[in-house]
Amino acid sequence: MRPSTHHARSARGLLGALLTAIVSLAALLTTAPAQADTAICQPFGTTTIQGRYVVQNNRWGTSAAQCVTATDSGFRITQADGSVPTNGAPKSYPSVYNGCHYTNCSPGTNLPAQLSTVSTAPSSITYSYVNDAVYDAAYDIWLDPTPRTDGVNRTEIMIWFNKVGSIQPIGSPVATANVGGRDWQVWSGNNGSNDVLSFVAPSAVTSWSFDVMDFARQAISRGLAQNNWYLTSVQAGFEPWQNGAGLAVTSFSSAVNTGSSGGNPGNPGGSTSCKVAYATNVWSGGFTADVAITNTGSSPVNGWQLAFTLPSGQRITNYWNANLSSSSGAVTASNTAYNGQIASGGQVTFGFQGTADGTFVRPSGFSLNGSACTTV
Asked: N or C: which end of the chain has fewer CB within 10 A?
């Protein structure tokens, strides 16, 4: 037995040990810990993540309980009680967003931004899905003629990354389109408050990086927005009809790159001046079209979108040197990776083959990045 071993510590030694412990504790407290998850159960409760995005519970279509937990990179639904009829509106839209929603603007956002000033709006999203629920995984893009930060905007673009159950977008299917290198079924309608243009993926998409402006230009080409309108917010989340606990946005990012005002999407800082030659070879029931776009302006065009409308009865079956948004009706042809720039006085060409019923008619006009072109 050696009782002196413990009692041999002097008061000075004990004080030193205590000070060391305090310093160690202070270091732990001043080191930035992993951000604690934040639970939100209030119907319209919100919180901020990453210092720049807002997570919202946004339970508006039911009185049943719903809770979300905001994480550092997104959110997950932790409680989603009750159900509503699948032929009506969903229960809610828990989501994460950049921009302004009913006067609540995300920190540091540069939205609203006039579409004519936006060169690119890159965004990335990753979802986690469940099977025991009826829902869609949706990315919302809101457009309005004014830079409003409150209320409902004029046009809502919805990208449905996934849908489970017997639900469908507002309106009816109007076309198929290739946007951002993916194929979509396009729906168009009005919910009584605003126009809705929806792009539905043929199968579930869990993760994607894309340019929001590709979809904004779709709305412009279909007459549901104009270049002088404003992008007010982008939002990613879920619309549940039944259950929904476990659904999650595991990552989200959004940026809006703007140039000088007065330009057009794809050509910030100046208006586009253009000429389009539309040469065709027509036979009974079919045709080919070779399209040449000439930049007659003084500045180069960096990234182009040529909008036109195919006359009734015409349908595109094959195309080259461009990406086409749809096969009939309102069509937007956009550049590929290798022909995105048109120098001042320069030209790019693309073409397509199609079927035609009745008397063949050419499109009545063309617009490049929102500016009307001369047709030859």
From this structure: N
